[in-house]
Design goal:
Elements lengths: L1 H10 L4 E4 L3 H20 L7 H5 L2 E4 L10 E4 L5 H14 L4 E4 L6 H5 L8 E6 L8 E6 L5 H13 L3 E6 L6 H4 L1 H12 L5 H10 L6 H8 L1 H14 L10 H8 L34 E4 L5 H7 L13 E4 L4 H9 L5 E5 L5 H6 L7 E5 L9 E6 L7 H10 L4 E4 L6 H19 L5 H12 L5 H8 L1 H15 L8 H8 L6
Parallel strand pairs: 1-2, 3-4, 4-5, 6-7, 8-9, 9-10, 10-11, 12-13
Antiparallel strand pairs: 5-6, 11-12
Helix pairs in contact: 1-2, 8-17, 10-11, 17-19, 17-20, 19-20
Length: 498
């Protein structure tokens, strides 16, 4: 990270001193910068010769070599004692510099604690690789001066980045709001809803560039686990951030991801993706689409190839209602059709238990917006009669939809994950960590999510998000899934916007 920030600053015309306590590490970093600049030049993406930039880079192995700096950016390991000691020396040596910490999870105020002038300390959190990802979080500690905030904000813009200002809370915006992406993936695998590859496939289909297990293997399981632990401890062990034993077990075994050749996946050779099966012949059935949820119009269109029938006469009812109370109203009509029922408000077994004919019910889930890549998750209930899930899969695949058969969980894989991301974003909004636009911008640019979690919640519908969270909380009893009070209030007020 330090070398990446140094390289970025060089390419933007700054003079850079690169420090490391280890001469060997410093030499490797400098050599890597040389290689990268040569590659950029060969691709025509570096005006001038690499030597023109390298003449402005010096390497130093003592902090005194940073004495003339205007801004010092610290990118040491995430160890609070180490960072405090480093900043105590920097305050003495760099008498006039703004002191920026690139910490991703530690509180800026904690890093600055004990300094004579903590107003000089500010958070400047880059994302890896710093040369590529466009976001920089600027974090104001309890004592950070407006001048320090201005200096690093202007510097971030001069480096071609988009700075976002956030308050000093554990994980700031991105590392805090992103925790459920990894945490829910681990819990879904632990609950055997789907395996690692299955979870990744469903979430790629929902629009994420990588699934959580692919991404943790890329980041490093040890690095990701350390971030989770840091946010968990700094949040007084709030269950929303609780680490998972699967990750701990793999880290203990030395399976850290790509850098060790094995993590959740074996990286010794290319991974083989299972091809999508050919669409089966369309069954001769009639369909009735029921419910007032946001997915009704989408599924009406996707299933347009099937003849429509009244609720009492249809072969299949596709129930898009999000809440269990709506499903109970459907069941009061005592339909005799097979029912494919959305599992936002409860798992397939809970949904089926609302029906007078639970053996005819199979659950499904997906998350808006629905694209050609979207994977529809089909989950049989404990009561579902043999063969019905396969019939539901045929019904959906025959019209070109991608399908995964999963275990049971309220919301399924995609909606559960997005609902948890949205709930965490609502929490950050409510406690003033950042405003709505900042949160969404940070998550799009810092994690490459297809859209910000608050925008996504509005597309799904706040009522749908609340239904998933309430279903998870009711069935697991885990406070990890407690809906934020602001989300509840907005739904009660009939609002679908933040």
């Amino acid at each position: 990270m330090g070398a990446g920030i140094a390289e970025l600053a060089l390419t933007r015309g700054h003079r850079v001193a690169l420090y490391d306590v280890s001469p060997e590490s410093l030499a490797r970093a400098q050599a890597g910068i040389v290689r990268n600049l040569e590659k950029l030049h060969a691709r025509g993406r570096l005006p001038g010769e690499p030597v023109d930039y390298l003449m402005h880079l010096i390497g130093v192995t003592t902090l005194e070599g940073l004495g003339g700096a205007d801004v010092v950016i610290e990118a040491a390991p995430e160890n609070l004692a180490l960072k405090r000691a480093l900043f105590a020396d920097l305050e003495r040596i760099c008498a006039h510099a703004v002191l920026a910490t690139n910490t991703s999870t530690l509180l800026v105020s904690a890093v600055a604690a004990g300094l004579r002038d903590p107003a000089r300390v500010v958070g400047m959190h880059f994302f890896n690789p710093a040369q590529v990802l466009p976001l920089v979080e600027v974090i104001r500690g309890e004592d950070t001066s407006e001048e320090a905030v201005r200096v690093v904000t202007d510097l971030a813009r001069a480096l071609g980045k988009t700075p976002v200002l956030c308050q000093d809370t554990p994980g700031f915006v991105v590392n805090r709001v992103a925790r459920p992406f990894y945490g829910e993936g681990l819990r879904l695998a632990g609950e055997r809803v789907l395996d690692y590859a299955g979870v990744d496939r469903v979430l790629r289909g929902a629009g994420f560039r990588m699934g959580p297990f692919e991404l943790m293997d890329l980041i490093g399981l040890d690095v990701n686990l350390a971030s989770t632990r840091s946010v968990y401890e700094a949040s007084f062990q709030d269950p929303r951030y609780r680490p998972h034993p699967i990750q701990e077990r793999l880290v203990t075994a030395g399976r850290l991801g790509r850098k060790t050749g094995r993590g959740f996946y074996d990286h010794a050779g290319p991974r083989e993706e299972t091809p999508e099966p050919a669409a089966p012949e369309r069954p001769h059935v009639t369909v009735h689409v029921f419910g007032s949820g946001t997915l009704r119009a989408v599924l009406d269109e996707k299933l347009a190839a099937y003849p429509r029938a009244a609720l009492a006469d249809a072969d299949w009812i596709v129930d898009c209602s999000e809440r269990l109370t709506e499903k109970e109203r459907l069941c009061e009509l005592r339909p005799r059709a097979k029912v494919l029922s959305l599992t936002y408000g409860g798992s397939a077994t809970v949904v089926a238990s609302c029906s007078p004919h639970p053996d005819r019910v199979v659950g499904f889930s997906l998350v808006a917006p629905v694209t050609d890549a979207t994977v529809v998750e089909v989950s049989p209930a404990l009561q579902t009669r043999a063969g019905l899930a396969e019939e539901a899969v045929t019904l959906l695949r025959a019209v070109g939809l991608r399908v995964a058969v999963t275990g049971e969980t309220p919301g399924g894989v995609a909606a559960r994950t997005v609902a948890m991301l949205a709930n965490e974003a609502v929490s950050a909004l409510a406690d003033g960590t950042a405003d709505r636009d900042t949160i969404d911008t940070a998550m799009r640019l810092g994690t490459n999510y297809p859209r910000g979690p608050l925008e996504w919640a509005e597309q799904i519908g706040l009522r749908g998000v609340l239904s998933v969270l309430e279903g998870l909380h009711a069935e697991t009893g885990d406070d990890r899934y407690r809906p934020h009070p602001l989300l509840r209030r907005l739904v009660l007020a009939g609002r679908d916007r933040f």
